[in-house]
Each structure stands twice: as structure tokens, then as C-alpha cells.
Design goal:
- The complex is a heterodimer of chains A (about 280) and B (about 500).
- In chain A, about 40% of the residues lie in helices and about 25% in strands.
- Chain A is built from twelve helices and ten strands.
- In chain B, about 70% of the residues lie in helices and about 5% in strands.
- Chain B has 22 helices and four strands.
- In chain B, helix 10 crosses helix 11.
- The two termini of chain B are about 25 Å apart.
- The chains are: A alpha/beta (about 280), B mainly alpha (about 500).
Amino acid sequence: MTDNKLLEVEHLTMRFGGLVAIDDLSFNANKREITAIIGPNGAGKTTVFNCLTGFYVPTEGRLTLHADDGPRLLERTEGFRIPRNKGVARTFQNIRLFTGMTVLENLIVAQHNRLMEASAFSLAGLFNLGKYAKAEKEAVEKAEFWLEKVGLYAQADWNAGNLPYGSQRRLEIARAMCTDPSLLCLDEPAAGLNPRESAELNVLLQSIRDDQGVGCLLIEHDMSVVMQISDHVIVLDYGKKIADGNPEAVKNDPAVIRAYLGEEEDDELPPEVAADLHLDPKAQ
Amino acid sequence: MSAAFASSRTNGSEVVKELAFFAVIALLMSVMLLGVETVDRPTGLELAVRWDLVLIAIGATVIGRLGLIFRRENISRLGQAVLITLSAVAVFEMFVRFRELDDRWVSPVVLDMAFGSVVSTIVGIAFVAIIFATAYFTMKDKTAADVDESAKLSSKIQLAYRSNTKKIGLIGIIFFIIFPFIFGEDRSAIDLATLVMIYIMLGWGLNIVVGLAGLLDLGYVAFYAVGAYSYALLSQNFDLSFWLCLPLAGIFAASFGIILGFPVLRLRGDYLAIVTLGFGEIIRVVLINWYDLTGGPDGISSIERPSFFGMADFSRRVPDGAIGFNELFGMEYSSMHRLIFLYYLILVLALVTNFVTLRLRKLPIGRAWEALREDEIACRSLGINPTNTKLSAFAIGAMFGGFAGAFFATRQGFISPESFTFLESAVILAIVVLGGMGSQIGVVLAAIVMIGFPEMFRELAEYRMLIFGAGIVAIMLWRPRGLLSFRDPTILLNMSQKEKVAGEVK
């Protein structure tokens, strides 16, 4: 299965001053699979995404993306270059759309680099030469494809900020997909969605995986999404990986249950403190 | 609702309290501004006290406030109209006294003026009637239907404007093209139109940086200065013609835009504004102090005037080897020819700025500017290089500033650092902001309001600044986001522009 690897994270460590947000984390994500990263709040999930997409430079570790044209070291790539040429696209926990622009414009901005090349850095575009006109037409077609896919075709000319919340989430995914990524990072895509909307989201993500052949990395708290669609689950707690496997295995892993539900009080206390407590009946 | 409102605030003591409060405010404000005057006497400067002005100011405030109370509580239509008119007359009296009268305790000047001649009587009656009528007829019990009606009207106007932007723009362009034919002989009209057109061009140039890319630039005048000095120095030292220097001035200004852009890339909002302000001042200070190159505060004089595309000259005494413009076209010599030519030159430059901006908006670079204005982090996550995108906005905006600067130098024939103070930057920025960020027609309107009106009403002396200030306050109150602050989408899929606007204004 080594040739199926899409993303390889090796010994990733991220420190902010004295705080260790991620501690020696290693995992792989495969092509055509949805890999979920779960964990309690503050476990370092979003920090992993920020390292992958170039918003943070990791303190230590190596992040390799096995794209079609060979491996790329993400930690050495400038942030804005990571999404280029079938790279890594992402969505944000708090939606970051261009709210004043229309839905269609949001999707066209996502295809900036290809259009920029076609417009010869605006010179050809200024006079609307054939090559640019063709590229723009293709960009609109691609946008239309994704609008159909996320069910926003009728709202294409609305301002993105006027869309309802669930549609904004879907639009953000469509926008990320318009960059033609080989890895899509989704930061809590189901947050704030009602059950029907999250069922739709499941269908969309499965289609991105199966029809587009794009690998997904998913941060999610909604277990109905995680357990239904992910092929592979990684559990983080305090920046460390505590479990790694298929959803069923992870669900029953005692370490995971402990991280989410906590331990029995007796186990957690140091033996001498526990002994003291038992001696003093009032403390119980 | 109005009944509940009225009952709480109409009892006598409340009204007296309110009036007393405003009287005190009027006293505090007028006592230093109006009440005290320095007078040059043989014994030296002395303070003269003008209680008459203070009394009139307080009186006008109290009467006006009482009128507003009547209006607020829907008491008596006639009463409030009379009170407001009285107050307006008192304000007028105060101004006339302040400017014309040194003698203090004389009968009201307003009366003298009103009965001075037939014309002034008519003007006076008209003035009073207009204020009275406005006050009388605008007081109405506002019902929900009325509010609805006025909202409908404003959305109708908006719909009409936004779905016909192109036509309105075209009419504007035609008006500016035929302008010299209408006012061809009026030197001051052409001069004023040229001045307004320079500011329109600067506004359009700055609009790229501020309106589209959302980078608040308080030092735009620096690029204007770079353009002007580039032309002046190249023309004087290397004897290059205006037509060759124009693109060079643009290139120089654009490179200064990039030089400024680099250090400020990480800054945003207030911080960016302060650094750009500093940059504008640096350029000015360098121009003042680099005496050998720029002539320092003396400036550069007798800058070469532009020729008719290198074919003919506009001077009365044509230099050897050149032909005059009038000879070329077989006309009488007129000094207006050059002015009209300059007017058309800046018109063409401004229109080029406009069309390039409109086109760039629909190109990936323009969309990236707008996206960057909305959310820089999202842009990075989509593979847009924020550095290059910001620098391109700075460079292109600066380039148009440079063109305008070169034109300014050739029009004036003399430039000095005094023309490039911070005030100029502030005026250009005000034009962009008042016009509505990103709106091209808004910039034209704002430039006419900001530059044209104060010049047109120069005879009104100090009052024009007062009216100007009132106008700015009015815009802030009723259109806080600028006169025409609408964003039109760059591309539409399944709606027409009209449908889109109709959906938005509702």
C-alpha cells in the first residue's frame, strides 16, 4: 500500500513558545480515502491543518505530499504556493468566503492562477485576446459544474454573504475544489449544520472522494459524519496521536474513550492522594 | 406612538430645561468665536466684545430649538414653521453683522437689506418663503405607508441608476467631450474643468488601491509628485519631449509604488495609512531639501509646454523650425487653443484610467484585488500570491498618479513641493471615499463636489467653506458609505444586471 500514500506526516512538532501544540505526530493519509482527525477541543487538530497549508511553519518534522508529479515537501513551500498545481486546498472552521462578491465570482477567484497565466498577467486579458476568453469560459464551466454539484446553481449570482449558513459551508468546499487539489482539508465542515444538511454533506464528500479521486482530510466533531464516511480515523489528544485505524476500531479503543469521557476518578489521582482521600470521609 | 412620545416630553418644565440646555451650549460655542474680536487700535491690539452676536446666536438657537420641539411633538404646523423661519433669519442676521458691521447696537441689518431695493425685497421674501414652506410642508404625521413610499422611491432611483450605469457614464463622457464647445471662450470654465478632470483622474487612480484592493493609502500625492518631477527634470536636463516623458513618468511613479509597497505589505488598515502618510511626507521633504536636483522650495519653473503631438506648437511666437497650431489648421491665433488642447489631453488620460480600471476589474488580477480586500487568508489558501497582488495594485495606481503628475507639470509650467502636501492626498482620498469606494461615477461626482463647487462659488468667500462643511456632514449622515457605494458583480451567470440589482435593493 506504500504507493497509495498521498500525505505523509513524519514527526511533526509545533511549539508556540513553551506550549507544545503538536508533539511528534506521524500519520499517513491515502489517496481516494477520507481520513478523519478527531479529538477533544484544543487537541491540536486545526494546528495540523495550519502546518499542512503553510499558515504555520512546523518547529520540527516533515510533511510530504505525494502529488501526481512526485513528492513535495510542504513545510518548505511558501503558503500561497501550496494550493497550486494540484496541491492542498482547505476550508476554514469559521467560514471565510468573499462575502461581498457573488457565488460565481468566489469560484472564479479560486481559479486565479490558471486564469492569470492565460491572461498573460493581464496584458492579453486587457485586450480580451482569444486565449484568455477561452480560459475564462472554461473557468465558468468548471464553476458551473461545482455549483450543480453543491446545489447552488440557482443562487450563482447572489452575494456569497447572503447565502444561508449551510450553503456557505458547501460553497466553501466547492471553492476549495475549484483549485483542483489532490488533497482537500476540511475543518469542521458539519459544524452548525442540521441533520439533513449533514447527510447531504456526507454524499458530497463521498462523491469528491469517489468521482474526483481527491483525498480528504477531515476535522470533525460530528460523529455521525465521521463514522459514516471516513475510511481511516486518527485521534489526537494534547497534540499526541492516541489512536489510528478504521472507525470501528477507534470507536472501541479504550484510550479514545478515556480522552473523550475522562477516567474514573480513582485511576486519575496519584495513589498517595487517593489514599488520603479514602482516609478522610468528609472529602468524599 | 406619537401620542406616547408627546406626553413624556411636552410638559412645561421639560421644555424649559431643554431650551436652557441649548442656550448654554450656544453661549459656550459663540462666546469665544463670535463674542470676542481683536481690534487693531493705535495703542496696540485690543479685545473688543460683541455681545450682540452672542445674543443673536443664543436667540436663534432657542427659537430654532423651540421650532424643532413643536415639530417633534406635532404641535402646531404654523407655529413650528414660523419659529424655524425666525431662527433662520436670525442666523442670517448674525452672519451679516459678523462680516459687515462694527457698530454694535443698531437696528437689525436684515430689515435694512430687505427694504433696500425691490430686488433685495423679492430675494428676501423668497428666502423666507422657501424656509417657511419647507418647514411647513415637511411636517407630517409619518405613517407606515409614507415610509414605505419613500423607501420605494429610493429603491426605484437606485434600480434606475444601477441598471443604466453604462448609459449614464456615456452621457457623462459626451458631456465632457462637448464641454469646450459650450464654454469655449470662457477661460475660467475650461481651467476649472481641467482642474476637476485632474482630480477625477487622481481619484480613479487611487480608487484602484483603496476601492478595489482595499489598501488605505494616505500618501498618494507622492506618486503625483514623482510624475510631475520626472517630467520636469527629464524635460529640462535631457530635453525630452512631453510625449516621451509621459510614459516614463508613469514608469517612475509605478516603481515608486513598488518601493513603497514592499515594506508595507504586512500592514493593514490604520498602520498602513500611517506608513503611506509618512512616505508621502518623505517624498515632499526630499523634494524640498535636495536643492541641487529639484531646486528645493524654489521649485522648477518654465517647464516645457506640450506640443501638438510634436507636429505643431501652441506659443504665440513659434520657435524656429516649428509651425504654430493655428498655422497648421489655418486659424487665427488664440491662447484658448492650448487650454482646450490641455483639457482634451487630461480627458483622454482620465478616460484611459477609467477604461483600464473597468477592464482590470473583470480580469483575474482585479478579482484577486477585490478578494484580497475581502479576506487575505482565504486568498492565500486559494494560491493567490498576496505580495504580488498588492504590489500590482500599488504600482498601477501609482502609474496613473504619475501620468496625472506629468500632465500637471506641463499644464502649470511650474512645480514646487508646495503643490504636493498632505492636504492633496487627503482631498484625493476624500473624493474616493465620498464617491463610494470602488464606484467610478461616484468619483466624478465627488470630484465635482469637492473641487468644482468650492471653486465655482469663490465669490461667496467664507460661506462656501461653511456650505462645503455642511455638505460633507450631510453626506456622512445620509450616505455614510459614499454617494454611490454599490458593488456591481464582474460576471453574472443566470441573472441580468437589472434582476440582480432588483434583488438587492428590495
